[in-house]
């Protein structure tokens, strides 16, 4: 006699419904799965509770995962269902966790991805474009899951496709902000000097002026201590719209490149006859000016007076998977180059230097 296992879930339990639908539709679903249903029954084994049901499915029917990490995220995201005020904190934790990951637990889809997608869904739908850009790793992961693993199944569970704007916001010119800061500093210094001139004693005048100069030096030196990391580079998707040979040099090319600004930029490129050269291609659908960053380094762009590119360039290389990357010389960790939607790749060359 065959034992029937009944999974008892709430009507609004989208997580378990999606996992169940995914397993039912999977070509690799075992035949024994036909003995599992989500209808109420008086016979056989009865399992209730969202995480208990999901864990049962995970352990018995084909989407394996690292149990320790998997259970951790199942419990973490279940907090959202119990207390919606904590969803923002969970979203930030997920964003940090996904900085160097395509999926939450393994390097392939697991039940944890499906469950997390449904539990974060209501929160994510209500976010503005700006708020989504503030959690780029979670946004990238959410968009990837909804367009691959659950594209056909999610609507059956009441989860419709979420339209996500992948065009990064325009970045204000750093030069303008620097000049305004410089003007503010000059203004502050003038005010300080005026106060100095009001003093009757010559000795106190000299001391005040010395203090102003010392403070100024401290401000200028503070910028020098900024470490050289990839987020200091403002990398953007560029569309080469015109290429022609330099009129005065055979080894140079003059290019017009659209980087999302009002007018294209003119760039002069040096070429070499030795070796093979390929362009690093952004993901399909990328737009000129879209933000490009190394995973784990998507912070706000700074502008210290240092040779940033010259320092970082030796660590730029294509991986065995033909993805552009930067290797941290201290930790030896590899950080992949990507936009919010996917990785930036070359067509053929691996272990190639990027210049």
UniProtKB/TrEMBL annotation:
Reply yes or no: does the keyword Nucleus apply.
no
Output the SUPFAM superfamilies linked to this UniProt entry. Answer: GST C-terminal domain-like (SSF47616), Nucleic acid-binding proteins (SSF50249)
Annotated spans, Disordered: 175-223
Q: Which GO terms describe its molecular function?
A: tRNA binding
- Domain named TRNA-binding is located at 229-351
Report if keyword Signal is assigned.
Answer: no
Where is this chain compositionally biased, Basic and acidic residues type? Answer: 185-220
Ranges annotated as biased composition (Low complexity)? 175-184
Q: Which InterPro entries match?
A: Arc1-like_N, Glutathione-S-Trfase_C_sf, NA-bd_OB-fold, tRNA-bd_dom, Tyrosine-tRNA_ligase_regulator
> Which residue stretches, if any, does this entry annotate as coiled coil?
none
Q: Which UniProt keywords apply?
A: RNA-binding, tRNA-binding
A single GO cellular-component term on record: methionyl glutamyl tRNA synthetase complex
- Read off the PANTHER family from this record: AMINOACYL TRNA SYNTHASE COMPLEX-INTERACTING MULTIFUNCTIONAL PROTEIN 1, TRNA-AMINOACYLATION COFACTOR ARC1 FAMILY MEMBER
* Full protein name: 10916_t:CDS:1
Biological source species: Diversispora eburnea
């Amino acid at each position: 006699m065959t034992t029937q296992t009944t999974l008892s879930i709430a009507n609004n339990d989208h997580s378990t419904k999606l996992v169940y639908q995914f397993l039912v539709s999977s070509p690799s679903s075992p035949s024994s799965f036909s003995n599992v249903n989500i209808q109420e029954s008086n016979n056989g084994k009865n399992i209730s509770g969202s995480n208990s049901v999901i864990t049962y499915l995970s352990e018995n029917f084909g989407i394996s995962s690292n149990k320790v990490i998997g259970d951790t995220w199942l419990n973490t995201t279940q907090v959202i269902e119990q207390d919606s005020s904590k969803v923002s904190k969970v979203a930030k934790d997920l964003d940090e966790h996904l900085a160097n990951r395509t999926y939450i637990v393994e390097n392939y889809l697991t039940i944890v991805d499906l469950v997390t997608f449904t539990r974060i869904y209501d929160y994510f739908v209500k976010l503005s474009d700006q708020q989504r850009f503030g959690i780029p790793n979670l946004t990238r992961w959410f968009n990837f899951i909804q367009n691959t693993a659950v594209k056909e199944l999610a609507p059956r569970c009441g989860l419709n496709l979420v339209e996500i704007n992948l065009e990064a916001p325009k970045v204000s010119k750093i030069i303008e902000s620097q000049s305004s800061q410089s003007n503010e500093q000059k203004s502050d210094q003038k005010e300080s000097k005026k106060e100095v001139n009001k003093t009757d004693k010559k000795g106190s005048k000299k001391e005040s002026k010395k203090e102003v100069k010392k403070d100024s030096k401290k401000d200028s030196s503070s910028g020098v201590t900024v470490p050289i990391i990839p987020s200091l580079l403002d990398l953007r998707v560029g569309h080469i719209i015109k290429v022609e040979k330099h009129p005065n040099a055979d080894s140079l090319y003059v290019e017009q490149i659209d980087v999302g600004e009002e007018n294209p930029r003119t760039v002069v490129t040096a070429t070499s006859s030795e070796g093979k050269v390929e362009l690093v291609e952004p993901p399909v659908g990328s737009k000129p000016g879209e933000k490009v960053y190394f995973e784990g380094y998507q912070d706000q762009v700074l502008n210290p007076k240092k040779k940033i590119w010259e320092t970082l360039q030796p660590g730029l290389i294509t991986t065995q998977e033909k993805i552009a990357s930067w290797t941290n010389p201290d930790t030896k960790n590899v950080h992949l180059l990507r936009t919010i939607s996917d990785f930036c790749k070359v067509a053929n060359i691996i272990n190639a230097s990027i210049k």
